[in-house]
Amino acid sequence: MFHVRTLMTATALGAVVALAPAVQAADVITLGAAVSLTGKYSTNGKNTQNGYELTTKLINDNGGVKVGDKTYKIQVKYYDDESTPARGVELAERLIQQDGVKLVLGPYSSGMTKAMAPVIEKYKVPMVEANGAARSLFTKGYKYLFAVLNTSDKYLASAVTLAAENAGNLGKKPDQLTVAVAVQNDPFSQDIRSGVIEDAKKVGMKIVIDDELPKELSDMSATLTKVKALKPDMLVVSGHAKGAATAVQQISEMKVYVPILAMTHCDSAKIIKKYPKASEYALCAAQWDAALTYKDKLFGDSANFVKMFKAAYNYDPPYQAAESAAAVEVYADAISRAGSLDPEKVRDALATTDMTTFYGPIKFDSTGKNTAKSMVLTQVQHGKYVLVAPSKWAAAKAVIPAPTWDKR
After folding, report:
1. Does the reported pTM lie above 0.85?
2. pLDDT band for position 260 (50/70/90)?
3. Which of the two ends of the chain, N or C, has the fewest CB atoms closer than 10 A to its terminal CB?
């Protein structure tokens, strides 16, 4: 196991983390990253950091990045953005203006990415990000922002499709299904809402509950009371890690039954560990799953990535860690193809990326979105996340409808 060496500064700007071994400055490519090491996004901020670090270490252990006739090690300079957009903006400015960083890795969350993106664009510094999925990020005309993940409106599209495919199990046709939507008031979750509503309406499903939940989500009993009364066929919940944990806990406590429960952030909320019985049969959106069999030269396949990550950090990697690892791979590939550390040349190389990683295929469109990969859907079955959609990757069939509480 390897360990991060953390150096705490005395300034109000947070923590700086040195990740690479001491090497001569001329032989180092420094990537800058402001991530949430404290605050409400700290769980996935740490997952992001761990994904970045594991890949950085592996690249360096394999000789570094070849740029023209020279080989460089990679190091990442971190600051803690404290899960606060204003601090993220401040730190993006600091990385570029004071620290001289010319290549930036993304923060965690759509809100933090949205705050930092204008700074990146202003200074014409590329950012490869793995955790900002809001589709509004890709409607601004940004030329220096590249995302390896799918946009958030696509997260639960497969859940709507799966519900429609299994409508007969509920004794209904797809256009007879009813849906309850309960999402947090933030850019990411609101995109989840928009995507689900659009997809549901395409097949004629009726939205019977459409609730906006507070950002500091700790109680959704009011929504669940309505769910209990209206008995929708599917309940969709999105509120980051805290929202997923709150939903599973309160659905169980209140004995709210829905045939189909679809959520985001199941793994980062550790719902299986915290609520082993209550989490059974939940459908969980994911950017990546360990059962996928894509391969690359650095990690091999997803199973090997999981093995390496768990050896380093002693827990199974959630998709946030996997996509963060892929972001560093993409940067290394683009820098090498650019044959230069000039940010404009690296930016142009990023724009022409067309590669397959253990995480999945990556190819950016003109807006910076990755258009080559699809979301996956897992279901908690017997205390494990089992891949159930899309069908080409499925390891098992989804259990729809879920058993009623008296039969669990």
Report:
1. no
2. very high
3. N
